[in-house]
């Protein structure tokens, strides 16, 4: 059981769409060997992630969005509730929280960081505004993790 699970997701072959996954890969290096923090980098969330979510005190989700001013960050507190479809056919953060409760009997405190992207075309690498925003988010996230470990 870990204190914090971080799930960063996105398609790293579509520029800014991959910011969640890229951030998670950096966090994996940073927290390598830390029993208190589990970091999952993936193209999209899967139902199998619900077990890791259920075993944590805090779940953090990192993703990109097409809506909003590019290079801006939204931080949202998440709670159990109605599952809203994200249109991808994959569970979103709220669905994973609900699955954690339904399948494993518990659901942690949860936060979602969403970075508004600029370029979602095919290709690799983040736009400058998204890269800068990701760096800012990483600092906020480090402070949040310290509260739980």
What does this 3D model show about the protein?
- The chain has one domain: HybD-like (Rossmann fold, 3-Layer(aba) Sandwich).
- Helices cover 34% and strands 23% of the residues.
- It has 4 helices and 5 strands.
- A 5-stranded mixed beta sheet has the order 2-1-3-5-4.
- The longest helix has 21 residues, at 128-148.
Question: Based on DSSP secondary structure assignment, what is the total number of beta strands?
Answer: 5
Provide a count of the helices. 4
Helix content: 25-40%
β-strand amount: 15-25%
- Count of discrete domains: 1
N-to-C SSE string, H for helix and E for strand: EHEHEEHEH
Major sheet attributes? 5 strands, mixed
CATH top level is Alpha Beta
Using the 3D structure, state the CATH architecture. Answer: 3-Layer(aba) Sandwich
* Average predicted local confidence, pLDDT: 91
Enumerate the strands of the largest sheet in spatial order, edge to edge or round the barrel. 2-1-3-5-4
| CATH fold title | Rossmann fold
Radius of gyration: 14 Å
CATH superfamily: HybD-like
Task: Please mark out the parts with pLDDT under 50 across 5 or more consecutive residues, or reply none.
Answer: none
Overall structural class, as computed from helix and strand content, comes to: alpha/beta
* Morphology call: globular
